[in-house]
Design a protein that fits this description.
The protein has about 240 residues and is an all-alpha fold. It has a domain of about 55 residues. It has 9 helices and no strands. The longest helix has about 80 residues.
């Protein structure tokens, strides 16, 4: 048609200046190639999805299931802890009116639960046994806790301290000293009580110099409770007269 030349002529056409026509052509071609590229990518994605959709869905289901299981387990643990705390409180209340039944309740709780409540229940059961007149039974229960490696160390040390305290008048002093010896060193949290009981056992055994030396160790330890240091100082002064 007149006045219409090809794009390469460099002359105006009915579509506008040559630069505009070239830009328009490049834009249209770019759009077409982008659309084709997008189609190809979508086609590849469709094929990949068809190939791996089973694995992807299975993984998603597994993630959801694991998350749900974790939440359910946390809820279960919280529920269990609340139930154990309730059982413990009921056993404590029962101890005021029926020590025998309370002892059974604490022993059952100790057997069926775990962690701190189980140890506390064993300690309570031992105390109730002694209230019923079975002092050897209490000592046996405390020694069992102290020797139980499944129990956390602080509880084991506490049981050993209590066993020494309640057995100081009936157990051989040498046995008491031997059982306390591992607890007398830092950083054991019960070392000051262990030292005080050791000194008392040494005195009962007739070894007055050893008892004075242990009391001096306790009196000179700035980390020891002030009440223990004062008591040790008074005992040393009493021994000196």
């Amino acid at each position: 048609m007149p006045g219409e030349r090809g794009f390469a002529s460099g002359r105006p056409t009915r579509y506008g200046p040559p630069e505009f026509v070239f830009d328009l052509g490049e834009t249209l071609l770019a759009d077409i190639f982008n659309e084709i590229d997008e189609d190809l990518r979508r086609d590849r994605l469709d094929k990949l999805w068809q190939r791996y959709r089973g694995w992807v869905i299975a993984l998603a289901v597994a993630i959801v299931a694991a998350t749900a299981a974790g939440a359910a387990w946390r809820d279960y643990q919280h529920g269990q802890a609340a139930a154990i705390a309730l059982q413990y409180g009921e056993a404590e209340a029962l101890a005021k009116t029926d020590p025998v039944k309370a002892t059974v309740a604490f022993e059952t709780l100790a057997a069926e639960s775990g962690g701190g409540y189980a140890v506390l229940a064993r300690l309570q059961a031992a105390a109730l046994v002694a209230r019923g007149g079975d002092e050897p039974g209490r000592l046996a229960g405390l020694k069992a806790i102290a020797a139980d490696e499944s129990v956390d160390e602080p509880y084991r040390s506490l049981a050993a301290i209590l066993a020494a305290q309640y057995g100081i008048d009936t157990e051989p002093p040498a046995d008491v000293i031997q059982h306390l010896q591992p607890l007398t060193q830092a950083p054991n949290a019960w070392r000051f009580s262990a030292l005080e009981l050791t000194a008392l056992a040494q005195f009962k055994s007739g070894d007055k110099p050893a008892a004075i030396q242990t009391y001096k160790q306790l009196a000179d330890d700035l980390d020891a409770p002030q009440s223990m240091r004062a008591r040790a100082t008074e005992i040393i002064a009493a021994f000196s007269h």
